[in-house]
Amino acid sequence: MQFIASVTLGLALLLTALRALAQDPGVIDLYFRDWHGVAPRTIRGSLQMQDIFIRGNPQAPAHRGEVLRFINSYAYSTLPPGSATERTRLDGQQEVYFVASGHGKVTAAGRSEDLSPNIAILVPARLEFTIANTSDQPLTMYLINEPIPDGFRPSSTILVRDENKLPITSSDGHWAHIVKTLFTTQDGLGTLESVLTVAIDPLTMGRPHVVDHDDIEEVWQALDGTSIAFVGNQLRKQTPGMAFYHIPDNKTPHTNINQNEDAQVRFLYFARYHPHETRK
Fold first, then answer.
1. Whose CA is closest to 31, among 264, 267, 234, 277?
2. In terms of DSSP H, where are the helices of the chain?
3. β 66-68/47-55 pair status
4. What DSSP element (H or E) covers 272?
5. Residues 5-61: tens digit of each pLDDT
6. Which of 72, 121, 133, 176 is the Cys-Cys partner for 145 at CB 3.0 to 4.6 Å?
7. Domain extents for the chain?
């Protein structure tokens, strides 16, 4: 009974705080975007891009998704069956790909790696590469493009991680986050500091929390399962394909709730937390 009373009191205090942080629902929606509703554009010969978040003002976005301050862009990309990208060299920037569906191959510096669902690739600056679809189905990937700071030393080869085979890094962050680490600053990220997957078990939720500074860039992309995104005093159904950007105003709490009784939900997560030392 004492435990139940403590939980009830905690929820009451949380709701009181949220009322003080009431947000205009229309403002909250500026920080959510689903690639399904975005018109595609084509780059590098055959790679179709659907922008999720682009550069803008994260404190006061002019339009939905115009929120990025530190990274260049975040998009959903599709490579049609049997096609390949033009040979590409990234100057002053790097890219992280996370395969959502399909099969293919990435080739750089004489090295080729197979691509399949849940494979993550870090393509460093100054390295020429191609991506090919080797199947009769579309190869789809989430694509993060980050600038590299002055003096940064990029890796000399692509880095590939199979999320299916990675160990769980932690299982109790913010109460309930089950984390697998894909890439960190030590792996060769330039502006970003972490790229992860995060799962939440049935009938659990992450701890609502506020970041106490505005130098953060944090994105939650729904991969599997439908959850409830909790942002300020607003709730949004977050379905696969939908992402939200943490509002960097030092006062808006956020988390996700898994209301499902028998299935995990899973996210692709990436963040730049604060000014930091990069690899020289």
1. 234
2. 2-20, 25-29
3. parallel
4. strand 265-272
5. 444 444 544 544 444 444 577 899 999 999 999 999 999 999 999 999 999 999 999
6. 72
7. 16-272
Q: Quick one: CA torsion of 9, 14, 19, 20, rounded to 10 degrees?
A: 110
Ranges of beta strands (E only) in 56-176 are 66-68, 73-79, 88-89, 93-101, 104-108, 111-115, 119-123, 128-133, 139-147, 159-162, 170-173
Six-digit token string for 273: 């937390």
E strand or H helix that includes residue 271: strand 265-272
pTM score: 0.91
Instruction: Write down the CATH number for the domain with range 16-272.
Output: 2.60.120.10
Measured CA to CA, the distance from residue 149 to residue 110 in angstroms comes to 27
**First CA to last CA distance, the chain:** 56
